[in-house]
Amino acid sequence: MTARVTKAWKSMAGQTDRAVKQTSAGWRSGALMLLAGLLLCAEPAMAHHATGGETPTTFLDGFLSGLAHPVIGLDHFAFVVAVGLLSAKQGWGPLFPVCFLLAALGGTSLHLNLVDLPAVEIAISLSVLIIGLLLWSKRSLPLIGAIALGIIAGLFHGYAYGESIIGATPAPLAAYLLGFTVMQGAIALGAGWLGDRLLHHTTGRAMTLAIPGLAIAGLGLVFLLQAI
Ligand SMILES: [Zn+2]
């Protein structure tokens, strides 16, 4: 009986292993196809208004616009995904994503207080390129360095988010801040969870996140070339 259970268990484990290896190969080709698609439809950073360029006037409009911005804006989306993946790769947990989220709120408030940040699109593109390379690299990174990057990048991404809400009344403004923070948090934590699964349930540990890292760096480079 025990022998039979052990045998069944081993065969199940073998099947799971194979399934995981196939998933890993699928993930790699999926990532490459996604990159090719993204490169074809890469858009400049300022065209991220969910409400067609109009300032949101209601709480719901503000919230939906906030939810949409980090997804429509591929440069933001790529960066936030990388924040989650890098955190998973380095085993940092949610601290690094949370620093980025708070800095993005700070960046929006800079914009709303009419403080000018220079070269916003270039800085955002560079942040995507750098975090992609960090994800790709086999070297490990000190948490403090990553937090510094997260804060600087967060200020610029948040500053760009501010563009869509400047001039709004307090209710849609608060809803917008909540919306993009919720969406960025969901993307970063989702990517962190996925990265953790990939790292601990596949073989070829360093390779697994190197490919999305390279894809994100490539995207950052495309945005940078568009921005300069
Ligand atoms: Zn944007």
Question: What is the CA-CA span between the terminal residues?
Answer: 69 Å
List the domain count as a whole number. Answer: 1
Proportion in helices: over 70%
Rounded mean pLDDT is 84
Number of helices: 8
Low-confidence stretches: none
Which geometry do the CA atoms define?
globular
Estimate the strand proportion: under 5%
Q: Report on the biggest sheet.
A: none
How many beta-strand segments?
0
As a whole number of angstroms, the C-alpha radius of gyration is 20 Å
Structural class: mainly alpha
What is the N-to-C order of secondary-structure elements (H for helix, E for strand)?
HHHHHHHH
Bound molecules: zinc ion
What does this structure look like?
The chain is mainly α and 228 residues long. The protein has helices at residues 2-40, 59-72, 74-90, 95-112, 120-136, 143-162, 170-200, 205-227. The structure holds zinc ion. Zinc ion binds at residues 45, 48, 69, 73, 76, 160. Residues 45, 48, 69, 73, 76, 160 line the site of zinc ion (ZN).
